[in-house]
Specification:
- With 123 residues, the chain is an alpha+beta fold.
- The protein has one domain (14-122).
- The chain is 51% helix and 19% strand.
- It contains three helices and five strands; from the N terminus they run ααβαββββ.
- Strands 1-2-3-4-5 form a five-stranded antiparallel sheet.
- Strand 3 (101-106) and strand 4 form a beta hairpin.
- The longest helix is centred in the first third of the chain and has 51 residues, at 15-65.
Length: 123
């Protein structure tokens, strides 16, 4: 009876082979994870920078229509020029055509971008 239940030439992976494959995958993941996180942070910073530039352009459009105007709220840009704020990016605008300052920061990134009235960007 035991000969009937026992199969000959059973093929499969040994536990050692499975552990080795798991170890190789874990090592590759450990190498790749910091690089992946760095790319995620870089993309979040790029998102904040691009949103700041969009707000700056929207502010310039506002000042073309309202030369004596002044900005103290992003909502003015939303109402006037259709500026759409990116999710998780905080944008502030202050000033008039000669003193405009726009700042943008992604809530989980490490840089805050500042655009001045002459178009210079710093972080």
């Amino acid at each position: 009876m035991s000969k009937i239940l026992r199969k000959k030439n059973v093929k499969g992976f040994s536990i050692l082979e499975l552990i080795l494959v798991f170890a190789v995958i874990a090592a590759l993941a450990a190498i790749a994870m910091p690089q992946l996180l760095d790319h995620v942070n870089t993309s979040r910073n790029a998102s904040a920078k691009a949103t700041g530039k969009k707000a700056f352009i929207a502010a310039q459009m506002y000042f073309n229509d309202e030369p004596g105007g002044s900005l103290s709220s992003v909502q003015t840009l939303v109402d006037h020029g259709g500026f759409r704020q990116t999710r998780k990016v905080t944008v502030t605008v202050n000033g008039n055509v000669d003193t405009l300052v726009v700042t943008a920061h992604h809530e989980t990134a490490d840089k805050t971008y500042t655009l001045s009235f002459d178009g210079d960007i710093s972080w």
